[in-house]
Amino acid sequence: MAISKQYLKTKPACKVTFVVPAEQAAAAESVVLVGEFNDWQDNEMKKQKNGDFSLTLTLPNDSSFQFRYRLGHNDWRNDEQADDFVPSPVSYDQNSLIRL
To answer: Model-level pTM?
Structure first.
């Protein structure tokens, strides 16, 4: 997994690109990103020509958000490049955390 951040000069926000590489997506037909930034609703990631899945969101600076990826229907994953990991409030798993 990969995360890239591009802070905007014109407003207090950051464009964050989330990527799930093709080799980690394996045979998943779809990959979604869920997190606090969208009230844990599915954000469908777009499959690229090289097989990677990606999604770019504009998020406010000076904030942090928990998130996870769902590959297919039930394969939940964290991002090893996340800024931190925190206990999930709804399961025994951990959630990825991004700080902006």
So the answer is: 0.93
> Partners of 17 in the beta sheet?
4, 56
Structural domains of the chain in order of their starting residue, each with its CATH number: 2-99 (2.60.40.10)
Residue with tokens 């700080």: 99
Measured CA to CA, the distance from residue 62 to residue 76 in angstroms comes to 27
Q: Could you please report the per-residue DSSP string of 35-94?
A: EGGGTT--EEPEEPTTS-EEEEEEEESS-EEEEEEEETTTEEE--TTSSEEEE-SSSSSE
pLDDT along the chain (100 residues), means of 10: 95 97 88 96 95 96 96 92 93 93
